[in-house]
Structures are given as structure tokens and as C-alpha cells.
Amino acid sequence: MxxxxxxxxxxxxxxxxxxxxxxxxxxxxxxxxxxEYEHRIVFFENKGYGPFRCHWCNIPVSWTNMHIDxxxxxxxxxxxxxxxxxxxxxxxxxxxLYLSNxxxxxxxxxxxxxxxxxxxxxxxxxxxxxxxxxxxIKNWGVEKALTKRKRN
Length: 152
Known about the structure:
The chain is of the alpha+beta class. Helices cover about 35% and strands about 20% of the residues. The strands form 4 sheets. It has a 3-stranded antiparallel beta sheet.
């Protein structure tokens, strides 16, 4: 009895990106795989091999070191008008800013000495992890947790 292998045409990656089955696409065949991120396929089909420059800092990038960035931060909006070439540094920085803003919207703010900051901003100021400060606030209270302590 012969086993027939079937493939999903596309699926959503755990990070939110759309992955397409494209075994004959140049981006897949060069790396001997069958699936590729949809936004990379769309960008390649519209822009080709390059050369490219980072949309944000203008340094040269190529397919070997380039990220494809979603301008609106929507990982499923793969319109070519929403996709730009990006260097690793700029893409990572933009992702960090997006997550930081998302955390601020969803997170908790604390006021100490008439200063109101988000938990992650207090953690940065106190030079400790987000989770360590959250534990201190839960167990010690806001006033004690947000007070800088002098080391002996």
C-alpha cells in the first residue's frame, strides 16, 4: 500500500505569519524546503533579487541578511504596499518598540513619588527584570518595591 503525502496550501505560524507551500519557488528550492513565509514570496515576486536598501537606515541589504518588514505591524497584511526591506537591527528595534507599546497598553502602571510609569519602565530604572519587580510589588507593596535601595 502506497502512502500519499498531502500538504496544506498555507497555514498560520505560531508567531502570526502566514506560511505557504511553495516547493517550486526559488526561495524554497535554493534551501531545499517546501514552505516559505508568504510576505517573503510576495516581496520577491514584486522586487526580485535586488539590490536593496534598508527602508529605515538605508544600508545595503540582500536576501542573505534582509528581513521583510510589515509597515503596519500586521503579520497577515502581505500587500506589497505594506512590505519593505529592512536590516536586522532596524527590524529588531521596530519589533521591540512595537512590543513595548503593546505591553504599555495592556500592562499596569504604578505611581511613586508623583511619577507614573509602566512596570517595564520601573524595572529598567531599577535595573531589574520585569518579573522580579512584579514579584516585589505583589509581595512588598508598591512603595517599598519602587524605592531604590542602597547596597551595603
